[in-house]
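User: Fold both of these, please.

Assistant: Here is the first one.
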Amino acid sequence: MMRRKSFGAVMIAAIAFASFAIPVLASDQELATGERLAAVLRAGRSVISNHQSLINDESIAEKNLPGQRVVDEALELYAQREGKSLEPENLSDLDKQLFEAQIAAMREIVDENQDLIDAEGIGFKGFIPAIFARLVNERFAEKVGNLAQTKVTAPVDIVRNRKATPDEWERNVLESKFQTSAWERGKPYFDEVEKNGKPAFRMLIPEYYSASCLTCHGQPKGEVDVTGYPKEGGAEGDLAGAISITLFR
């Protein structure tokens, strides 16, 4: 009897340990949702980047860059990059809600900044991709923050805005995964952890400096760029930050 009892106790302990040690795997749906939210945000940010010369043209008062135009161009760019258009009718009810909230956030942020965008006699407006993305993410959280959150963050030594400072989970992933030579370039990291006291699927997608980023983030390190921040001294291909996605379960 003692031997049977010991064996049973060992089996129970082993099962309990296995249950604790093996996290719940993300569903294909969660991965697809996270990747789509990041891709749409990137597309919107790229549209703002592509229109910087127009936005900062002090000789033009009417830029003809309303929120709907930015949204339309972002979805077109998304389709080019992904090889397929984004059809809301093919999304689940939850994904459609998140998509509509993200698109509405983009449209609203651009429309609310029309006076700045159209300001005549002012060159650099400060309405840059990073600011646009942060404002969109904040508006997205206002709309559906109990369901999902998006954020652009970066390693603590190069993050510029305190609102973008990585939380403990993001910092750990950046430092122990993305900043190591062993990590596969571009590979996202995901896990199931608690956030704000709620179980959540969390995903971090690395981003790297492109040539266009180096105007503000390149050499010489420490030189003040057009936005008023010291340059990070980065090089093309260096880790620039990450898009953080949270889907509450």
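And the second sequence with its predicted structure:
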Amino acid sequence: MGTDRMGGVRVAQRFSGVERSATVALLETVQRLRREGVDVLDLSGGEPDFTTPQTVIAEAVSALEGGDTHYTPSRGLPELLGAIGEKLATENGVHVDPATGIIVTPSAKQALFTALMTVLDPGDEVIVPTPAWVSYPAMAALIGARAVPAELRAEDGFRLSRQLLEGRLTDRTRALVINTPANPTGHVLDGEEAAEIVAFAVEHNLVLIVDEIYEKIVYDGHRHLSLASLPGVAERTLTVNGFSKAYAMTGWRLGYLAGPGPLIAQALKVQEHTVSCAASFVQRGGVAALTGAADDIAAMLKEYTVRRELTVTALNALPGVSCAYPEGAFYAFADIRGTGLTSAAFAQLLLERAAVTVAPGSAFGAGGEGHVRLSFAASRDVLEGVGERLTRLAEEWPAP
């Protein structure tokens, strides 16, 4: 029975295993410190500092001025569904019917929750390779299911193997979440890993939920691979994506869920009975993003490459810290085990002595301890300031 209470009012038992988002809490800490006059340089979040492409803004403004402020079909605007379908086919090799195989959602986060709600019952289990984004386990818990961590190792480059997955399988396992490029590690799934994941899912009749929100942010010749494009797995794969990271549209809250018609038909019920639809004028902006913002994405990726270099170089200059270059996304996942500190203690040290905020690796689950995550989606000026502060800190803080 649920016994947790607030002010004497009973709350659902499901919340007993769910904490607030660690990354959201860090953002609130930064905002509070800045109100208090502290010059905090924040690398704890995952928000691009770029302005949304002008073509996207112009289209949304035009829609607003034209009175396009009403409900859309719950699946999404036909124009946006068509643009997403075309994008999936040409860029990802994923073929779905835009009329039956896609739902436009108010954020990729909502698409993820919808996907999990669609395939998990209370008591079911979903395997989540970790370190992982903080909301995967929380979403599962809110549904009444359980996220089972498959702990990846930094020494293996955070690569996933079938052997590791088999060790997490039970008779309650229903799904597997894959994030590529990965937050927080920056690892990009390769063909060998993908083949093992597909074979595992097919043999055990599991649904694959694939989070591809960072797909356009890859470096050093790495290429994004969509699992749903591989033979024999499309009918069991739900692909999640959105506009926040690649198009600098975090505040627009626009994402989508794509997959086989029978699964999407059930997912549509979640959409219809919760959020109804994404905002009409925001969807118009989404069409413009998919059809007219390629140059903006290329420019942002070029800048991320410079920022990655600044961040990794500054981290590797710290005593006891080692940081590999991430293959994708815009996070550096630094190994701080050589300092002798926990990730929480290290993050606190940077905050107290350098006024720099980072996310402790422990927030990202099993395998995250011993690391901290820094976002280089911040401006170059901020990153250069962080580098200067870390250099001063290194001079006064000898290696253990």
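The two ends are 49 Å apart (CA to CA).
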